[in-house]
Amino acid sequence: MLELTDENFEKEIQGADKPILVDFWAQWCMPCLMLGPILEKVAGEYKDKLTLAKVNLDTAPQISQKYRIEQIPTVILFKEGKPISGFIGARPEPIIKEWLEDILKK
Question: CA 78, CA 80: separation in Å to the nearest integer?
């Protein structure tokens, strides 16, 4: 799992050899704390297809502002350096897997 900051975000996203699933979160956000372990589990199952990364809103305000993150958790899948899909709020594991399967086929 990657920890993304204002300093390394663009370099990591642009230089990625596979899609990056970015979890925008904060330590004080209960739904974020519930979603985190689910994303880690799913990312482990999809490790050949994507990389999981986390952006802490409290320590990366510029990136959060650039992508207009107003609610958390927000999850965005970046492919070839561009945001292609995402969702807001905690979701159950089966729903996340279904979403990923659909998006990764494209």
Answer: 7
Residue 103 has pLDDT above 80, yes or no: yes
Cα–Cα separations (whole angstroms), residue 84 to 2, 19, 22, 26, 81: 19, 10, 11, 22, 9
Residue 45 in 3-state DSSP?
A: helix
CATH code for position 88? 3.40.30.10
Which pLDDT does position 39 carry in this prediction?
97
Residue 101's domain spans which residues?
2-105
* Number of independent structural domains in the chain: 1
Return d(Cα 21, Cα 67) in angstroms, integer: 14
Catalytic residues: 29, 32
What's the token pair of residue 53? 């990364």
Q: Mean of the per-residue pLDDT values for the chain?
A: 95
pTM: 0.94
